[in-house]
Amino acid sequence: MNNPQDCKYTKDHEWVRVDGDSAMMGLADYAQSQLGDMVFVGDLPTVGDQLKQGDSAGALESVKAAADFYAPIGGEVLEVNALLLDDPGVLNRDPYGEGWILKLRPSNAATDLANLMDAAAYDEYEKAQG
Amino acid sequence: MTDSAAMKRTPLNAAHRALGARMVEFGGWEMPVQYKGIIEEHKAVRERVGIFDTCHMGEFVVQGAGAMPLLQYGTSNDVAKLEEGQAQYSFMTNEQGGVEDDCLVYRFPDHHYVVVNAAPLAADFQRLSHLADDQQIGDVVLRNLSDETGKLDVQGPLAAALVQKFTDTDLAGLKYYYATQGPVAGVPCRISRTGYTGEDGFELFFPIAEVERVWNLFVAAGAEPCGLGCRDTLRLESSLPLSGSDVSPDPARNPVSAGFGRFVRFDKDSDFCGKAALQAFKDNPNAPKLINFEVIGRGVARVHYPIVDGSGTVVGEVTSGTYAPSLDKNVGMGWVTPNLAAVGTELAVTVRNQPIAIRVIKRPMYKRSR
Q1: How far is CA B148 from the centre of its chain?
Q2: H helix runs in A12-115, sequence order
Q3: Residues B199-248: pLDDT tens digits?
Q4: Residue B217: its H or E element
Q5: Cα separation of the two ends of chain B
Q6: A63, B71, B85, B180: which has the highest count of C-beta atoms within 10 A?
Q7: Parallel, antiparallel, or unpaired: how do β-strands B58-63 and B87-93 relate?
Q8: What is the DSSP letter of B65?
């Protein structure tokens, strides 16, 4: 398991890393490995959009499958990772780093984060996926 | 994977897992979809040589004086045209003209050999048996060798050099769409210069007990293990249809309207199942057509997505769609109303409720340079 300790995780295999009043989020390693080679990222929100926890916030496509990205917590979109549009493979190569998808200013961090798993719980959850 | 116990497994199941394959259900079988990654495996086949486990597919032997009449009636191509050792692509069409399965038919010295897909295998065999009875074709022995036959596809520009290391049969003398019998790696084998990738290559048929040993030898000699994921991208780029989707039992998806009429021989010296219906499709200018398309807008077209015209009216449906690694674009096949099927026509595919522009392009979308 390469799931960083400083992130929280959703059951849909998104991660979020809160740092002060900014939160970075992306797709967990398990999800990218299940999807395989990523070939398209689209339908990302625009800077300034307000997202609620669980809102659809991107379309991710691999050679074989399409998946939605859901915002693991809510907030105002500060930045989207433009690199993904030209090089979706970065989602596979570096899911917790260069492959980040969005940065938000959390609007409801304490409540939203309480709904998520820490790395230890997520490791167990990932194992149970088989 | 909860029903994994119900899935059939090839003798290579453990070998696939040891190679790190991700396994999926396909046609009732648990099969590898990828090992290292679909794009890497795809490129291995285009540039070097890949090996596929195709043990799930079906093999029938048809023997006796009735073999030719049965296959002439049960398949759409002209079996009488086959030379000894030659193979032909063909369709098992139903009375309505739809495709129950696509297949390869071979003529060997004292029998014909038919290779079919995994999911419809049992139904294909039953169908041929019933056709023999219905058409009162006597002196025909039909045997299903699928359970005792292991099949490996070795595909790519270096396939011949690799297989040649394991056989005394002169492969340079084996032409495309011909087959012969001879030992490979010391094992009796049908060596067929055919495949489903658009590259040069071989489909090799072994006794099932030997297939794992041969797989291991070929992998050790440099054949890249390749899963069903790249099998799909390779065949789609090469504009080869997926039976059950691009052509299917639905007569609206018949091979004549799909543009595969050269495998439907109205001129052969025999009636065949679905001939009248297919002739009617051939004569009907309003029958939908199968197009090949590239995605111009941003997005990936997938099977079952609607195809729409400029006004948003649904004019068809995608039957295959993916990212094409060798073309570096998103492509697909789909059925549309015939006035929109000309090369260059611009249409759209509805992706997440938004129209994404596509353009009809000529087939094959990819053609090897040699």
Answers
A1: 21
A2: 29-35, 83-86, 90-93, 109-114
A3: 999 999 999 999 999 999 999 999 999 999 999 999 999 999 999 999 99
A4: helix B211-220
A5: 42
A6: B71
A7: unpaired
A8: T
Tell me the nearest-neighbour CA distance from B175 into chain A, angstroms: 33
- Please, which residues bridge with residue B150 across strands? B206
* Residue A87 identity: D
- What size, in residues, is chain A? 130
Q: What is the reported pTM? A: 0.94
Per-residue pLDDT averaged across A58-65, rounded? 94
Q: Would an 8 Å CB–CB cutoff place A40 in contact with chain B? A: yes
**pLDDT tens digit string along B87-132?**
999 999 999 999 999 999 999 999 999 999 999 999 999 999 999 9
SS3 A98: coil
Pairing of the two strands B187-192 and B141-144? unpaired
Q: Do residues B194 and B104 make contact, with C-beta atoms less than 8 angstroms apart? A: yes
Structure tokens at A30: 């398990």
What angle, 0 to 180 degrees and rounded to 10, lies between the N-to-C axes of helices B67-74 and B121-134?
110
| DSSP bridge pairs for B322 | B331
* Contact criterion met (CB below 8 Å) for A99 and A92: yes
A 46-105 → B contacts, CB under 8 A: 59, 61-64, 66, 92
Task: Give phi and psi for B55, each to the nearest 5.
Answer: -65, -20
pLDDT at residue A122, rounded to an integer: 97
Alpha-carbon gap, residue A81 to A102, rounded angstroms: 6
Which chain A residue's Cα is nearest to B229?
Answer: A64
The Cα–Cα gap between B272 and B223 comes to: 40
